Amino acid sequence: MSLLASLTRAELRRRLREGELVLRTGPFTTRIRSDIALVGEGLARLYAAHAIEDADSFADFQVNLLRSGGWRRWIRPQVLFDQGGDAPFTPLPLAQSQPMFEWVMNWCISNHAHGYLIVHAAVLEKHGRALILPAPPGSGKSTLCAALAMRGWRLLSDELALVRCTDGLLAPLVRPVSLKNASLDVIRAFAPEARFGLPVEGTIKGTIGHLAPPAASVARADEPARAAWVVFPRFEAGAATSLTPVPKARTFMRLIDNAFNYALLGQRGFEVLAQLVDDCEGSDFVYSSLDEAIALFDGLAGDAP
Amino acid sequence: MKPALLVEVLRDPQCASALAPRAWELLLSQARAAGLHGALPFVLDDAGVQAPPAPRRHLDWLRTEALRHRDSMRNEVRLIAQALGGSAPLLLLKGAAYLMAGLSTARGRLFGDVDILVPKDSLSAVERTLLLHGWVTTHHDAYDQRYYREWMHELPPLEHMQRGTTIDVHHAILPETASLRPDPARLRAAAVPIAWPGTIPGQHPLFVLAPQDMVLHSALHLFWDGEFDHGLRDLFDIHRLLQAFGATPGFREGLAGRARELGLERPLFYALRYCGRLFGTPAPALAAGGPNRLQLLLMDFLFERALQPDHASCAGRGTAAARFALYVRGNWLRMPPLLLARHLFHKAVISGRAPAGQDE
Q1: Structural domain count, chain A
Q2: B25 to A114: CB separation less than 8 angstroms, yes or no
Q3: A85/B71 CB distance under 8 A
Q4: Does B228 contact A at CB distance below 8 Å?
Q5: Predicted local distance difference test score (pLDDT) of residue B359
Q6: Which of A137, B149, B206, B349 has the most crowded CB, counting CB atoms within 10 A?
Q7: Domain final position from A112, A130, A150
Q8: Which residues, 6 or more positions from B8, have their beta carbon under 8 angstroms from its beta carbon?
Q9: Chain A contacts of B30, Cβ < 8 Å?
Q10: pLDDT at B142
């Protein structure tokens, strides 16, 4: 098995051009084709520690990120996504290639991988027990996730919690953590050693920067974890740190609100989610200080303060 | 031209046993592009093909999706029947008909809309009833409304406010303006009742077209339309219908005669020809109904390109031109030239959008 970091830039660009780069992220492989230099640059910075597969192996998804044709090639160039003819995304300015790649990956997984119950949530693990952070955008989920990942928690995913329908374990899907606007500076100050991709300004979500996932988490991407906590985070400026229990039934319903394919899985989805909620403590969490937040979660995980 | 991998696998599913990993990837991707991804796992299961673990996982995901789709569409038909309350016999067409009749054609077939056929004089009563039960019209442009109501064979599609599902209410199977106009009363008169599936007990009677009419409608729908992005899927429907009914006494013998009665010999000729050429479907040979030799050469060139999956790996020399030529032909067959010119002018210039996609 080789890592993406082992490829020279020239070889990386060649594989991208010819559709021969097969990137492994957790349980999935993706064949990426691109004629955009920025895409290679982003992958080299953010996915260096990820495994790559042979060009002739089977890829779960095909992601083509190509420059749009016509006059758009020269004036305000755009990036187009397609999956063998099917293009459910509108083109974006070329500079937004990296966020587009991440969105497209999320789309591919949440629309196809129905062997998992897929919940919009960050997942981290410590001492064998996993923490699920489901939340709508703007709640401070990714900021909290990045902070925990920089302080010894193993990152499983920033965006998609994958609950295996076979055994209810969480499959890691270690990928960059997407941080928006003020969160970028917060994490830079909180963890000066953190490595980032190029910040992208002017997206639909404002300025986006991607935090490279810790190499130690990437290396353990085939180790599933059992969920112990479901915590609904909410950042509130100046608020005191508080953790309030949420009843099981309410936790269940709120997880459904954040799930992508709950209805599609039918009875199996119900069973998997019910087991997960039975095994977990559910809580609402309000925070304004990352240090206090980390101390609280370390305490939950059984670390001495 | 060389047929797509997907076509080879549909023709002879056993050949998938020998596929290399990257060929499996291509097969799944072509199936998605063709709209046949739901059907693929069932085709391979029936042939006893054991896929390697990585593609097998996709086939399992697709089966999950297809079974869920089956259940929700069955339920949708139940809700439509409940809304219409037996005011008129509920006659289903296409996907919903294959599904409710339990035909093998429906296995893994993913479809968006429920199509029903009602007598023209009950059209407005049916529309009113559906509007009262939560469906709303989708085309708000005055021209679009007129286009459907004056020239088409169906109401503008109705969408349910809560469920987002769509129903197409037809009063005929081709537009009022088309060159072929099979009499819908004869289709309705020959329709056959079907039982509700055990899992979804409905109270009101359900009907589908008679077997031969079902094949003829499917053929007409495919070969008298201008859009072929799901052409292969529609041809595969006909293939599976012919297989499903092939053993029924009198079905094969009567097919050509029924086509003559309804004036649908040409679409039947094309359906049998290309089912045979692409899938090797055993079917009765047709003595009549085909075009002259020169025209047939041209049609072979066009259809054999346009019926491949709409996927980058299947686009050869002439594919784009063939699709465009068939698009023009499809419109030509549906409207007299002057009306067509006026329609295309309106869609291109006045409505300011592409003329594609008015109709399924």
Answers
A1: 2
A2: no
A3: no
A4: no
A5: 39
A6: B206
A7: A112
A8: B15
A9: 84
A10: 78
Provide, as residue numbers in chain A, all residues whose Cβ is less than 8 Å from the Cβ of B52: 58
CA distance A117 to A263: 10
- The CA distance from B49 to the nearest CA of chain A, in Å, is 18
Predicted structure pTM score: 0.89
Q: Confirm whether A234 is domain-assigned.
A: yes
pLDDT < 50 positions in chain A: 85
Domain boundary among A112, A128, A145: A112
A264 touches chain B (CB under 8 A): yes
Judging contacts by C-beta atoms under 8 Å, the chain B residues touching residue A59 are 25
Q: For residues A134 and A264, state if they share a domain.
A: yes
- What are the structural domains of chain B? 5-350 (3.30.460.40)
Contact (CB<8Å) A85/B33: yes
Residue A84 to residue B30, Cβ atoms within 8 A: yes
The answer to whether residue B32 neighbours chain A at the CB level (below 8 Å) is yes
**pLDDT attached to residue B312:** 82
Contact assignment for A266 to B71 by CB distance below 8 Å: yes
* CA-angle at B344, arms to B343 and B349, nearest 5°: 105
Confidence band of B173 (pLDDT split at 50, 70, 90) = confident
Q: Are residues A291 and A261 in the same domain?
A: yes
- Residue from A80, A114, A166, A265 to probe the interface with B (highest B Cβ count within 10 Å): A114
Per-residue pLDDT tens digits for B199-221: 777 778 899 999 999 999 999 99
Same domain, A92 and A124: no
pLDDT digits (tens, 9 = 90+) for B277-298: 999 988 776 767 788 889 899 9
